[in-house]
Every structure is written in C-alpha cells, then in structure tokens.
Amino acid sequence: MNVYRDATWVLEYVEEEDKKGRIEGSMQSLVLRACTRYKLKSNPKHIYALVDSAWKYKPYLEIIMKKSDILKDIPKKKGSPMYSRLTVLLLCHDLLFSKQKRIQMGKLPIKEYVLKHKTRLHSELVKLKLKLKVKDLSQLIEKEEISNDVTPVRWIRINPLRCPGNDVNSVLAELEKKFTQRVDHWKDIVPGCIYHDDFIPNVFGIHPQDKITSHELYRQGKVIIQDRASCFPAHILNPDKNDVIIDACAAPGNKTTHVAAHLLPKCEKGQLTKIYAFEKEPRRAQVLQKMTNIAGCGKAVKINVGDFTKLAIPDQYKDVTGLILDPSCSGSGIFGRKYVDSLNRAKRLQDQEKKHQQNDKEENDLILEEEEQAVASDDPDLQSRLSKLSSFQFQVVKHAMSLPNAKKIVYSTCSVHPEENEKVVIDLLLDRKVQEWGWKVAGRENVIPDWPRRGIKGEFDQVFRKETAKCQELADSCIRALPREDGGIGFFAVCFER
After folding, report:
1. Residue list for the binding site for S-adenosyl-L-methionine
2. CATH number of residue 182's parent domain
3. Res 373: pLDDT
C-alpha cells in the first residue's frame, strides 16, 4: 500500500504541473522532484515505473472509470470520499494494464472496492478498444516517437582508480568474458557485443539490453555507466599532477569521478585535496559523496554543499587551475523527455484547434504538422525559460573565470539549443571583464579534434559579421553531439583557456 500511497502524492504533483499548461522536465525528473518535496520513503524506481505508465494510460483510464461509475460509488466518511481519485486510478491501472494484471497489495478495503468493479471495468475497456479500433491500448501509447526515446548505446567506462595499479587491462579482460564479440562501430552493437570507443580512452559501448548493473565489476566501482558525450569535459580538461580542479555543478558525480580518474593516477600518494566539488542540493550532495566513495576518490574530493557562485570566493581558491562547469540546462538532449514533450505539444495543438474552425480535415492535418514543428522552436514559454537558463549559465562561467589562477575551463550542457551553447560562448567573449581576464576559446586541436560534429557557425556569423574565418574557427572549437544520431545524448562542450 505504501507504494500506491506515495505514487498518489507524485501523481498529484504531476497533475499540478500539468495544470500550469506545460510540464517542465522529463517524467523521471518530475518523480524525483516530488519524492524530494514530500520526503517519500518508497523506492523512487518503483514509484517512477508506476506513475510513468499510469500517466500514459490516464486519459483512457479516466474514460473507463467514468463509464464504470467506480468513482460515484466510493463510500464516504464525514461527507468526503474515503478513497482518493488518483489512488483508485493507480489500482485500476495495475488491474487492467500491468503485466500481472493484479493489484499489488494485501486485503485492504480499497482493493476490495476496486475488485468489486472488476467486471464492469473490463467491460468498459473492451468497449473502448472496439471504439478506437485497436487490439490493445498500448498501440496508441507506444508510438515511434515515444518508444524510440531510449539511448541506442549503453556507454560505460573503466575506472582506473579501482583497478590494481591503475591498470585497466585486467578489468577489460573480465568485460570481454561477458561481451565476447567486438564490433568496429557503435551502430553494429547487438546484445553480447562490445565497442571500444575511438574518441575517449577506457570508454566502451554495449547494447542497452545487456544488464551491466548486475555485474560484479559495476558493483565494485570498476565500471561506471556514463554516456560517452558526458565523458568529453574531463577528457578535454585532461589535468596533470600539479592541477587542482573544481567541478562546480557536480552531482550525481560522473564528471567528478571521471576527472579524478584522469588526475589521481598521476599524483603521489598522500597528496591533499585535488578536487573541489560543489552541489547546491543537500540530497544530491549525499549521492555525490556516495558515488565518489564507490569510485575510490572520496578522500581526494572535498564536497561543498551550496551555490558555487556564492561559496567559491576567488581569494579562497587561489590554488584552483581548472574547472568543469555543467550547470542546470533545459536537458533537451537527454532521453526520457519525448513523452512529456509530446503531451505538451498536444496541449498546445488542442488550444490552437479551439481557436480555429476546421473546414478541410486533410488540409488542416498538414497545417498542424507544420505548426508542431514551429512550436518546438518558437514556443514563447520555452524561449523565456531558455533566456533565464542562459543568463544563469553565463553567470556561473563568468564567476569561474574570476578565479585568479584558473587557466582552463570546460563548459558543457546536455542541451541542443544554441541559446545555452554557442550564444553563451558569444556573450562571454564579448564581456569586458572576461576580456580583461584574458580568456579565449581553445582551438579545435585541443578539443577532441577528430570528433566530426562541431558548433553552429551561423550563430557566430550573426555577431562577428564579415569575419568568416574567425566564425569558422570558433564553431570548430565547440563540440556538439546529437541525441541518438551520435550514439547517445545530445551534448555541447567548449573549452576556455588563458
């Protein structure tokens, strides 16, 4: 019952967000946000699985529930219904759409109440499927856009800090026992195969269906799941033994532990803190601490809980020479957003339909398709949010640039929007203080030069007009990765140096 109770809280939260007219973030982030807000004790993974599926089926469940009169018959206590509408919905979901087709709880009154309506619920489900001309409602839910919203490759990296003598070969040999066939390109990966990445050392691609999390290497921290693009920042920074690094927006800790894997093997044992990690949220800071301990770099990383721009006073961090900055962004390049995004687009299109009369259905369908594409880029809510995010991102990077002895900064996002990427770079290059401090964009030769997809030249052309060579050079200095097309999440990275 606890999972249903907690899932009800989360579902109420999602409904509240939906009533605002636009859901922000992926369903996973919404669930985690609600779990934190309400301090829920149930496993977030279990809540997410239930809420995610129930939300997808919710429009159909509401029709079925209304037709069956299950909500009308709820007994009352002191004039109020004894059972929450959303709790009943969750139970109906499991009864009708879960794999087991059963309610996962003991003999409680609410379960008995729902089971009393089982025959009517099933009858209304059958009628709805006939009306919609489908054998199963999942046919309507699992559209290509949504079902493809998963990573094409599960990227992993070997963590040298947990390898004997920092030598990754023994761990690689263990991996190759599980993944017996090596392929030459990530697109050729099938279950049981492994791909050795050409761009980032000790990074490998496996099929998403291969469960690496159950392997002992993963449990021991010798193998870490991290998207290839997310490995770019530490690889670009490439610190040596004399460097002291800040990860300004560190949780959950993938980039922190990756930069530690670059730095610590070069250092002598017993050296003091080499990495300062900042995380604003206390709960996420706990996750960060746990991850650094598992990865074997906990003693070398000092975690600061709070806002980097307020805690990292320049005069107190004179030893810092390099920084990784991956601040909050729109997350438009990550997986798990398309279902929520499709709901947002549908909501906008419904609003448009109310305003305009439909004369010719065929013609109108074409118009809607074009409008949908336009909304994705011209949505005023999105533009407003991107403006706020880019302003925040600019301030974080500029603050990092104020550290007196910093020589190298890698800025990255998991966004595909130029507003958070090239335009932030341009704003920084035009800033007087940044110019006074001597910061410039590092050339392509120092930023994974063989990676083919670079920055968008047109964004620089709009500002540095008639300087074609400069614009090309700046665009080439930036790295971009497109979601799915480049084998993982959408990503942007650029390196500043002085």
Report:
1. 249-255, 279, 307, 326
2. 3.30.70.1170
3. 29
